[in-house]
Amino acid sequence: xxxxxxxxxxxxxxxxxxxxxxxxxxxxxxxxxxxxxxxxxxxxxxxxxxxxxxxxxxxxxxxxxxxxxxxxxxxxxxxxxxxxxxxxxxxxxxxxxxxxxxxxxxxxxxxxxxxxxxxxxxxxxxxxxxxxxxxxxxxxxxxxxxxxxxxxxxxxxxxxxxxxxxxxxxxxxxxxxxxxxxxxxxxxxxxxxxxxxxxxxxxxxxxxxxxxxxxxxxxxxxxxxxxxxxxxxxxxxxxxxxxxxxxxxxxxxxxxxxxxxxxxxxxxxxxxxxxxxxxxxxxxxxxxxxxxxxxxxxxxxxxxxxxxxxxxxxxxxxxxxxxxxxxxxxxxxxxxxxxxxxxxxxxxxxxxxxxxxxxxxxxxxxxxxxxxxxxxxxxxxxxxxxxxxxxxxxxxxxxxxxxxxxxxxxxxxxxxxxxxxxxxxxxxxxxxxxxxxxxxxxxxxxxxxxxxxxxxxxxxxxxxxxxxxxxxxxxxxxxxxxxxxxxxxxxxxxxxxxxxxxxxxxxxxxxxxxxxxxxxxxxxxxxxxxxxxxxxxxxxxxxxxxxxxxxxxxxxxxxxxxxxxxxxxxxxxxxxxxxxxxxxxxxxxxxxxxxxxxxxxxxxxxxxxxxxxxxxxxxxxxxxxxxxxxxxxxxxxxxxxxxxxxxxxxxxxxxxxxxxxxxxxxxxxxxxxxxxxxxxxxxxxxxxxx
Length: 690
Fold this sequence. Notes:
Blueprint: H1 2-11, H2 23-34, H3 36-45, H4 52-75, H5 79-88, H6 91-94, H7 106-112, H8 116-124, H9 136-163, H10 168-196, E1 204-212, E2 215-221, E3 233-239, E4 249-253, E5 260-263, E6 272-280, E7 283-284, E8 288-295, H11 313-328, H12 340-349, E9 369-378, E10 381-383, E11 392-396, H13 404-413, H14 420-429, H15 436-455, E12 462-463, E13 468-469, E14 474-482, E15 494-496, H16 497-503, H17 515-532, E16 540-545, E17 548-550, E18 555-560, E19 568-573, H18 580-591, H19 605-623, E20 635-636, E21 642-644, E22 648-654, E23 661-662, E24 676-680, H20 681-689
Helix pairs in contact: 2-4, 3-4, 4-5, 4-7, 5-8, 7-8, 9-10, 14-15
Protein name: ANKF1 protein
Pfam families: fn3
InterPro entries: ANKFN1, Ankyrin_rpt-contain_sf, FN3_dom, FN3_sf, Ig-like_fold
């Protein structure tokens, strides 16, 4: 018989001991796995005198029992135990896709008993259906054979138990009878589950969108009804014909954690139709066409043939910097630098232990002047000097009024920490002009070099967006850097921030704290800002709100505190691409004289974008505390889509022209809710480039 041949074939590869199992046997096996057996195995690994071969035998035996435990857990419909085993062991260790002596896989048992939670857990772990069930007839025949043989075995054991006198052998046969009766009921339940199942309904919410000029993206949900059988895979088909004749391609999706698929390698400007169907043990269900029914691969730039604005900018800037260096290579300022590599090597070779060198020039207290401090942190610890001070060096003791332009210039310098020495030498030549601005900036570079030398590292991190000032005339520029390595340093103390804050003795009054005291009090907020400013958005298309306010010497931009490197925003959709058709519709909408555009045709990508924009605008207006009726005077920025790395793109929503930037002394009638701050525009731009 075919079933018998299959069983003979699998016996050679069996990972499960032969013979029937029972609920009691399963419980005993669970106790072995979770208790004594594992402890004994660990003790061998930790240094027992058992030989290496004995350890290997023990490991193999252990893995065989874990495979058997998985089968038992599935048969007993013990979801918690199945999840525990899948978490503890890899699919290879569990032999997840190796049939047992009955020619069944764990997934086969789960789907034929219609246990959807266990089947989904197995599918996410990489489980497959048995490859031997090539047709519905072969599966039905195999189940019928298992039921018939189990029934025959139950009848035989029943007769033996009835006819034999009570003894030890009879007691053992009674146990076997109970085990076979349980297995007989299991097989009957599996056979009934298979017979009552039907092919699944079509998938729901099949949505098609344009992903790029050569790809489309399809997403879908599970069928409303799987008809008493778990869906184990999906099929995505595409064609240039609405009848799918001829088909252009198909893809089978058997990893069901995320139900989506991107069809790549398509022709730009060609319409593609897509449909999706689901599969269970009874076969493929009917396909469901996508909405919209077709998509045309394209990108908004194809509307007017525009090239990416940033294309080649980074390369051009690198080339420009190289040319500037070449011009200055032979100037007088570089004559003293011939021995520079050796001194630089010596500086770099210093470790952070030099923080505690008695000869260091870190300051204990501040006098009236301009200072630089570097905050290095790791988790909730902060790096301090041997006197429990955050490293501080002096920039200028006669400079009591920091000009915003000097500060913004220094923030740009923070993008070139490795070039500080070169910049300092070039600025030295220009001091003959006696420019106060150049002298101040030269002192900034000198203080930076001093901080780098004392710390023994070049990268001082990111400049905090505003300096700390006190009433004593001190100005403190703060840099922030997170140390993510587990490296330990000699003679260096990482002090918990809370301990540093409570142990420091303030030399100022609470009403007039010094800049250092203010730094310690607010250091947690600054570290939180630094962490948040490095967060990235998830891929998608966003609607951003551009709001500026001007002062005498700067322009500031409104940003959310939770993501200060991004404009105020809400997510429109997960697909970042704007197709040519969508962009063309947006252009027509923006150019209309009427403030309310006509709604595009249903079941088109333009209509979906229209609906998504309506929802996003309402959400964004609520976020920034602007009445919805005022949104009718707002405008979409129609010159371009802001693209960030190909995975994140922005459409900008602008207030009326007169309200884009609030002038000094002008009240903003709509104050955003809490959770926002304003950054200098240059700081915001630098944050976007990091």
